[in-house]
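Why do we care about 3D structure at all? Because function follows from shape, and shape follows, mostly, from sequence. That is the central idea of this module. The next example makes it concrete: a single protein chain, its amino acid sequence, and then its structure expressed as tokens.
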Amino acid sequence: MLFPGSVTAIAIALVVLLPGSLSAHSCDLESLRLGSSQWIVFGSFRGGNFACSVYVVRPDGEGECRLSPHAEGSPSCLDPSVSEDLSHVLFARGGSDHRTAVWSMGLDGSNERQLTPNVMVRFSNGRARPTPSSDGKSCLYVEESDGVRSIQLLSAADSSDERPVDLGPGEFPSWSPDGSTIAFVEKVDGLSQIWVMNSDGSNREQITNGDSHGYPSWSPTGDKILHSRATETSIELFVMAPDGSDQTQISNTPEIDERDATWSPDGKLLAFLAKPKDAPGGWEKSVFVMDANGGTPTQVTPSKYNHSRPTWIFLPD
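And the structure:
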């Protein structure tokens, strides 16, 4: 398997941060299961020099744990995403040279492995955004070369010489639950639009028009695509059918702009990024949770830190 790591051991060492403190103690997998079956995984910048570690938190904002073993100020772990089989976490790692590579590690932070060379994706205007397939045997990520972004497919292989497959222009890729289709973003006449294509890059089709659309995310049942859409006053969350029809607005919060939204495994909740009103620098993004049918969002991470893409993890009983 391309992505090493295992969760077969009963105990998984995590670092639990106490509110307002950097003191820590360990917890195990059974403790996490007792607390909640669904957890939100996210990157959090809590040190200088692009330092970002992987954290988990319950949808109610309780039980925040640091998943990656790095100390504050260590190499970054951006845009983490956990495979559905819980075998590994994919993340992007980079530094002050604005270059990132795709890395993998076990759910306990062990077996770190660099999967790609450093790719030309700048922190300021893009991400590598590694996204694992449901079977954990391949991943999508975004590469930038000469200012052009393209979606790359990295398949499982025994050889360290495995080469990614270029699926064509685009960014922000999202797998359909069955792995047959990829939703992604590509600009048309200067505006970001959502497209779909087969998993091999064929049959590319634009499914949105007009206003800018971004951050597509398939529902667990595969019958809807969640996304952000620019309105006259703000960026709001919408859902639509996989062919772009039946667009329905589900958020109405002009005071914040929702981005990077993802579904909970049971399809009942959404997690997304937005700038809280009390962000100390006016630019920090926090993780919010909202009912999938709409309603008032709840902030679940502290405003004083900047956070990257939230995804979900399901721990069965």
